[in-house]
Structures are given as C-alpha cells and as structure tokens.
Design goal:
The chain is α+β, with helices and mostly antiparallel strands. A 5-stranded antiparallel sheet has the order 2-1-5-4-3. The chain is rod-shaped, with a radius of gyration of 65 Å. The two termini are 122 Å apart.
Length: 473
C-alpha cells in the first residue's frame, strides 16, 4: 500500500476517493461524538460549582460561553455543503479549544487533580472519538499538550513535581493515541483499498456477467435462427424429414411428411409415434434397427412399407442418424424417400428388358426360319429351271410358270416378314418402283385360279379407271 509517510495520504485521485468515503462513513459518528463531548463538557460544570468557588464564573464562561457554543456551531456546520472541505480543521480546532479551556481551569485551580483528568479525556476524545485522522489527531494531541505547558508556565505557585507527573501521563497518552490512531487509519485505508478492489472485481464480474448474458443471448438467438433455418430448409426439401425422441415419439416433421402421409397438424401430438405409420409386418424390424442405430453415431438405412392416414401403403427408404448432445443420444433424425416411382420404374425396366429380349428372340427366330425356308425354295426354283429346259407342252409350260411365280411370291412374303421385324426396330427403308397394273392382276389370277376347286370360282373384274402403272413398294 503506497501512502505518504507523514500524512498517510494516498496518491491524489485515490486520496480524494478515500476522503469522500471516510467523510461519508464518519459524519454520523462525528455528530454524535461532538454532541456527547459538548454534553459531557457542560455536565462537568457541576464540578466547577462544587469546587472552584471564586473562579466559577470564569469556568462557566469557558464551558458555556466559548467551548460548547463552538462545538454546537461545528455540529450545525456538519449539515452544510462546505463542511466536507473543512471538517478535519474544525474538529482539530474544537479539540484544541476544549484542551485550552481545561488547561486554563487547571492553571486557575492547580491543586485539584480532577481537571487534570479532564484534559486526559480531551486527548482520548480527539484521538479515538471524533474521527480525527492520524495527522490531525497528532497535531491536536501534541498541540493540546503544548498549550497546557504554556499556560502552566504562567501559573504562579505551581507544583512542578505534580506538573511533571501529569506531563508524563499526557506524553504517554499522546504516544498511545498516536499509535492507536495510526493503526486505526492504516486499517481503515486497507479496508478502503480492499473494498475498492472488491468493487472493481464486482464491476468486472458484472461486466463478465453482462458479457456472458450477451453471449448466451446471442447464442440463443443464433440457435433459434439456426433451428428456424433448418426447419425452413427442411420444409423446402422434396423429402420426408422428421425427428423423434428415444422412444420414437415424433418431435418434429417437415411439410413433406404432412403431404405424403395426408396428415394435418391436429394429427400430430406429443404421443404420436413414428412406428404407427409403418405396416404391421415392418414394425418389429424397424424397432430393432431404430434401437441399434441409437448406439451407432453413423448413418443407417432401412426399407419399409409406410402407411398413409387412409391406410394406403407405399415403400420408403429411411436414412437415420442419432441426435447427440453431450456425448449422449437424445433422439433420432431421419430422412425418408418415397420409392413408389422408383419401384414402378424398376418394374417398367424389367418389362422393357423382357420385351426387348422377346423381340430379339423373334427377330432371330424369323431370320433363322427365313433362311431355313429359302433353302427348299431355292431347290424348288432349281428344279423348275431344270423342267423349263425340258420338252413341255403349252399347258405344262403354263403350270411351270405358275409354280415359279408362286415360289417367287413366297420368297417375297418371307422377305416382308423380315421387313416387319425391321419396322419394329425402326430400320426399314422403302423402295418404291413402277409396275403395270394388268400384270398384278394376271399373276394373281394364275395363282389363285390354280388353287380354286369347284364349286369355287375365281373371277377378276377390273375398273376401267384404274391407271396402267402403279408406283409403290
């Protein structure tokens, strides 16, 4: 603690704060001390009445004409604003004035030892009672002793042995008073510093608390904003997002769950359990996997049959991960994907694959069959060509021509069958060409007339407006 060695003052700003606190704490005690000191100073006037006789008027004048009025004026001044600046000076003056009054009384009546004791009371009142600081109390104590000895020096017929003995006591009282006043003030200053430090620490703690409250408030606001952001994002997702507690009770669902399950807000309560929305065959499996996932801080997946509000079942794939707080699972966060469209697409892909396989088989079969049919047709055409080189009558030539024409038609039909396969594959190419109309009907007549048996007859009627040539594939 840094203080002035003589006055015990702190550095300027700190001393100003100390004196303000010291004055505030001392003011009530100082008023009471002054009042009691003045009262006792007046009560001792009764001793004057009993003992002093001819000096009674002087003694009473000192008491009630000088000292007590001055003490009263100091008490009244303590209610004034300026008192804080001069209160130590006024208390010092009151101490010196009271001591001087008693010293005059001792000088007038030195043989009476009671007044010597009165001066001792003045010293102790100044050091301990009226809240004089160490420096001012020391000035008051030694000043009172000096005034006493000056007055005694002008007192006739003084008993110097008695004076010496009382000086010895007054000197000792001053030393004791100084020692006590010193440590009282040092203790008070230490308490002031301690209170100041405590106040600073309290202010620091209040600042820390304010900062912590601000941090908590900011963190709470961030968490609320984060939760709102999460919910807004979850509501935008075309996926079913929900959270549950450790028992599977729903704590949060997004709008997609409400939409997919055909639910309303009234359908969701604190007792709503996620397993209530699963087909009965999947509940046991889902419960076991749910409990197992709570112990594993990883993403798990499972496929189940979900039930809408009306009981309609549809397949879902559920991805889940436990919600961890302070290294402990408190629930489950899940995302469910509707597999209905995926299942339909898989079924369609399977059907397309089967259809393609069937088409490939048919095309391969037709290609093989056309190849196999063409082989005997080639033999027939070969024999027909050989027969055409033999000697045939006109009727046989006509029959042979019909045979060749029919064989060619059969081969063309086989080629067209292959063209149908190309049409299915989108690979057919049309080859239009011109041919005479009468030849078409002539060939048809030869073909079908040869296979008709009575009573069936084959007749051809041609419209006169038919064109002579037709262009087609």
């Amino acid at each position: 603690m840094q203080t002035h060695p003589l006055t015990l003052d702190f550095p300027a700003e700190q001393e100003k704060a100390f004196q303000a606190v010291y004055f505030k704490d001392s003011l009530p005690v100082t008023r009471i001390a002054l009042f009691l000191s003045g009262l006792l100073y007046g009560i001792f006037g009764y001793l004057d009445y009993l003992m002093v006789g001819e000096h009674l008027l002087l003694f009473l004048t000192i008491r009630f004409g000088i000292v007590i009025p001055f003490i009263t004026s100091v008490i009244l001044a303590s209610f004034m604003h300026f008192f804080q600046k001069v209160w130590q000076h006024l208390l010092l003056a009151a101490m010196l004035l009271g001591g001087a009054g008693i010293s005059v009384m001792i000088g007038q009546f030195p043989e009476n030892g009671s007044y010597y004791g009165g001066l001792m009371l003045i010293l102790f009142a100044g050091y301990f009672f009226v809240r004089l600081r160490f420096f001012w109390a020391t000035l008051g104590g030694w000043g009172t002793l000096i005034i006493f000895n000056i007055i005694m020096a002008y007192t006739p017929d003084i008993d110097y042995d008695l004076l010496f003995s009382f000086n010895f006591f007054y000197f000792a009282a001053n030393l004791i008073g100084m020692f006590a006043a010193y440590y009282i003030e040092i203790s008070g200053r230490k308490n002031f510093l301690l209170n100041q430090q405590l106040t600073e620490k309290k202010n620091e703690l209040e600042d820390v608390n304010l900062n912590l409250e601000a941090m908590v408030e900011n963190r709470t606001r961030d968490l609320a904003e984060s939760e709102e952001r999460f919910r807004n994002l979850a509501d935008l997702l075309p996926l079913m997002v929900y959270e549950t507690d450790l028992k599977g009770n729903v704590t949060y669902i997004n709008l997609e769950v409400m939409k997919q399950m055909s639910l309303t807000k009234e359908d969701i309560t604190h007792n709503t359990n996620i397993f209530d929305f699963l087909a009965s065959d999947d509940v046991e499996k889902a419960t076991a996997e749910f409990n197992e996932s709570l112990t594993i801080p990883e993403v798990s997946a499972g496929e189940y049959q979900a039930l809408k509000k009306d009981g309609t079942a549809f397949p879902v794939l559920v991805y889940s991960t436990p919600i961890i707080r302070q290294a402990k699972s408190i629930g489950m966060r899940s995302v469910a994907v509707d597999l209905t469209e995926q299942k339909i697409n898989e079924k369609l892909r399977t059907e397309v694959a089967v259809t393609k396989q069937s088409a490939d088989f048919k095309q391969s079969f037709l290609a093989n069959m056309s190849h196999e049919i063409r082989t005997p047709l080639t033999g027939i055409l070969g024999i027909a060509e050989i027969l055409s080189g033999t000697k045939l009558d006109e009727k046989q030539q006509d029959h042979l021509h019909t045979l060749v024409q029919s064989t060619e038609n059969l081969r063309e039909i086989i080629n067209q069958i292959l063209d149908y396969s190309k049409i299915e594959a989108g690979k057919v190419m049309l080859k239009p060409e011109a041919f005479p109309t009468n030849a078409l009907f002539a060939n048809a007549t030869k073909l079908f007339d040869s296979i008709c048996r009575k009573p069936i007859e084959f007749n051809v009627e041609e419209d006169e407006d038919l064109p002579e040539f037709i262009k087609a594939d």
